[in-house]
Amino acid sequence: MFKIPSLIFFLLLHSTLFANEIEKSMDVLEQTNSKLKNYQEKINNIDDKTQELLNEYKYTNTELKTSRIYNKQLKEIIASQKEELKSINQQLVNIENTQKNIFPLMLNMVESLKQLVKLDTPFLLEERTNRIKRVEDSLNKADIKTAEKYRIILEAFKIEYDYANNMESYQDKIDNKTYNFLRIGRTALYYQSLDLKEYGYWNKATNSWINIEDSNAKSNIRKAIKIANKQQNVDFLNLPFLTLKESK
């Protein structure tokens, strides 16, 4: 009877010790799992950081390649702009030289206009002289470009040229007396007094006005003035005029 309780006590003690060992083992195992979990989290964090660094590297590498391409293009653009600037500077020099050469030419053209009016049949003298004065004034204005100055001169020449291809009637004065004038091209210029009593024409040979006494000539001048004023249909005219050639 004594041995059995002793055995039971021994077994209980052994069981208690074994349970304590198991509990210790479980604690160690749990601690180990916890450490392993921490290690895994650290590994995961390291992997995330590595991936982040890798992504940053790829992005930086892409940006670097893009920057290199951009810098290359920028260098080419700058080089092209330098060449273009060099070309523009040369063009400016050429333009400046051209302007230096064209200004004397324009002065000569204006002088030619003056001589044309001076030696021509004396029609619309005030209008033509004022036009030349405006052309001269334009040459001295800094706000008018050279091309525009040249255009103004050419326009004045065109107007003078057109006089040779038309006829017109207008009023002007001779010795402060008003007359009706008839211009036919640049070759013939006649006058008629407002009372229709006096008639005459410009003689280029003598550079003077010649009176007309012929009644038929006076009648043709009256008709021509009406035609020029569009008061009568175009008709054949028999007008007297004396050219330099005829006077020789």
Would you mind describing this structure in some detail?
- 68% of the residues lie in helices and 12% in strands.
- It has 248 residues and is an alpha+beta fold.
- Among the domains are: 96-163; 167-247, no CATH class.
- Strands 1-2-3-4-5 form a five-stranded antiparallel sheet, covered by helices on one side.
- Helix 1 (3-119) packs antiparallel against helix 2 (125-139), helix 1 (3-119) packs parallel to helix 3 and helix 2 runs antiparallel to helix 3 (146-163).
- It is rod-shaped and about 160 Å long.
- The N and C termini lie far apart (185 Å).
Number of helices: 5
The unreliable regions are: 242-248
Q: What's the alpha carbon Rg, rounded to whole Å?
A: 56 Å
Helical residues, percent: 55-70%
- Morphology: rod-shaped
> Main β-sheet, in a few words?
5 strands, antiparallel
Overall mean pLDDT stands at 79
Distance between the termini: 185 Å
The succession of helices and strands, N to C, reads HHHEEEEEHH
- Structural class comes to alpha+beta
- Record the strand order, biggest sheet: 1-2-3-4-5
Total beta strands:
5
Q: Bin the strand percentage.
A: 5-15%
